[in-house]
Amino acid sequence: MRQPERHAEAQDLLTRIASRLSAHQKEQAAEPANWGYPGDLGRITEQPAYVLADLGDLSALDAKGLEY
């Protein structure tokens, strides 16, 4: 796969992630006492922090106290 296709794939994934985050937020709003939703987000936010690090930005890992 060439660079333009990989870039488009990455953009598609980001769009889909944004959509699922929006749905997750709506589901949480319907169940505000359910601590599972914030727990999900704590775990979920680690993955993009590693992606940023792969792209040269370690700030999110540093802020979370994670090692690269």
Briefly summarize what is shown:
The chain is an all-alpha fold and 68 residues long. It is built from four helices and no strands.
What does this structure look like?
- This protein is mostly helical and 68 residues long.
- 76% of the residues lie in helices and 0% in strands.
- It has one domain.
- It is flat and about 45 Å long.
- The chain has helices at residues 3-30, 36-44, 46-54, 59-64.
- It contains four helices and no strands.
- The longest helix has 28 residues, at 3-30.
Element layout with pairings:
Layout: H1 3-30, H2 36-44, H3 46-54, H4 59-64
Residue fraction in strands: under 5%
How many whole angstroms does the radius of gyration measure? Answer: 15 Å
Q: Based on the structure, what is the oligomeric state of the protein chains?
A: single chain
Give the integer mean of the pLDDT values.
95
Backbone structural class: mainly alpha
- Which regions have little confidence, pLDDT < 50, spanning 5+ residues? none
From N to C, what is the helix and strand string? Answer: HHHH
State the domain count. Answer: 1
Q: CA-to-CA gap between the ends?
A: 27 Å
> Sheet bearing the most strands, described?
none
Helix content: over 70%
Query: What is the count of helical runs?
Result: 4
Total strands: 0
